[in-house]
Amino acid sequence: MTSTLAPQTQSAVRDKLPLAGLFALFTAGFVSVLTETLPAGLLPQMSSAFGQSESLTGQTITIYAVGSAVSAIPLSTAMTRWGRRNVVLAALIGFILANTATALAPTIGFAFGARFVAGIAAGLIWSNIGGHAARLVPGKLQGRGIAIAMAGTPVALSLGLPAGAFLGTVVDWRWVFGIVTAISVLLVGWVLWKLPNFEGQALGDRVKLKDAIMLRGIRTILWTLAGFVVAHNLLYTYIGPLVAHAGIADQLQWVLFTFGVASILSIWIIGTFIDRHHRKLIVASMALFALAALAIALSDVSTLLLYVAVAAWGLTFGGATTLFLTAGSRAAGAAADVAQAMIVTVFNIGIALGGLIGGIFLAGFGVISIPWLAFIIMIPTLIWVALGKTHAFPAKF
């Protein structure tokens, strides 16, 4: 009896998702994105406290992205030999220090410095979450495990940011950053309790950046990601003016709610099907997003069309990070950590470029040029997806 059941029991153990560890990573990602986006919901209060314009105070988000972009690759390389849990703990300590400093910041310059440190911590988090999740779960469930771990991003965008903005109306904005600090402190305990500390790579086993970027499929993944993120951030940064152009400025919160709900639904869809249909999902997501951008460009024709387009856009965004991180991890193999860091860097560069290019087009050609530009950018992006059939986004791994 024992010899018959033992293999089945072992298989069940292997097939079981380590949810406690995955949710620790989920929460770390949630804290990272919440920290990044909080100033957007607290902008009036922060700008008033610092005696600065909202446009200048809003750059606290930009400086965060810059910190992530410049730190992800060098820090992940420098900390390759660290245990994976130790890297997560270092990032969480960075968030604790940075959010505490932001809460106590006497000037906007001090806040900029604190936000840059928070961005560095985020670079560590995002270059580690995907690889850590991949190590936690059995190979055939790798995509689902990464999906759970990465779900903190859309959840923070759709629920965390509105919650932070609401808290800002109840308590002083500094207390909101203090609350995030408290969550991070509790998360340190959870990580120490439930997250395994997988060994890092030995110095001789470390894959160099120049070697990783030459791996088949990696450059295609990065180019596709760059196109998607720039196009997405064009729309996301200027969704307010776009909604106003459609004549429903008073419905902005409902448009964002629609985007958030669709993004959360996307997490479930991607998590359920990614291990069996990864290529189909990436092709469908990029094509659907292109159509959504086109529909938003035509949304002044119909309010219903705008809501449908935003819902479609949310469906493509919620699981996008999981799709790209999974592709990078599988294509890079032993260089997965370096690939994750490159993906984080490209993602943050795309955020910055989307906002910058969108601002130029908004000033020069009007708000309606933004969704048209996003649609145009998605054309070569779709071509990159098609070209990635063999190595970047194969039908089977």
At CATH level 3, the topology of the largest domain is Growth Hormone, Chain: A
CATH superfamily of the largest domain: MFS general substrate transporter like domains
Instruction: Name the helicity range.
Output: over 70%
Class derived from helix and strand content: mainly alpha
User: How many β strands by DSSP?
Assistant: 0
Highest-level CATH class of the largest domain: Mainly Alpha
Number of helices: 19
CATH architecture of the largest domain: Up-down Bundle
Quaternary state of this entry equals: single chain
Rg over CA atoms:
21 Å
Number of domains in the coordinates?
Answer: 2
> N-to-C SSE series?
HHHHHHHHHHHHHHHHHHH
| Shape summary | globular
Q: Round the mean pLDDT to the nearest integer and report it.
A: 83
Query: Roughly how many Å apart are the termini?
Result: 36 Å
Please outline the major beta sheet.
Answer: none
Low-confidence spans? 1-14
Portion in beta strands: under 5%
Subcellular location: Cell membrane
Organism: Arthrobacter ramosus
Membrane topology: Multi-pass membrane protein
Protein name: MFS transporter
Fold topology:
Layout: H1 2-15, H2 19-41, H3 43-50, H4 54-57, H5 59-78, H6 84-104, H7 108-126, H8 129-136, H9 142-150, H10 152-170, H11 173-194, H12 209-212, H13 218-237, H14 239-245, H15 252-297, H16 303-317, H17 320-332, H18 336-365, H19 369-387
Can you put this structure into words, describing what you see?
- It holds the Pfam family MFS_1.
- This protein has 397 residues and is mainly alpha-helical.
- It has two domains: 187 residues, Growth Hormone, Chain: A (Up-down Bundle), CATH 1.20.1250.20; 191 residues, Growth Hormone, Chain: A.
- Helix content is 81%, strand content 0%.
- It is built from 19 helices and no strands.
- The longest helix has 46 residues.
- The radius of gyration is 21 Å and the shape is globular.
- The N terminus is likely disordered.
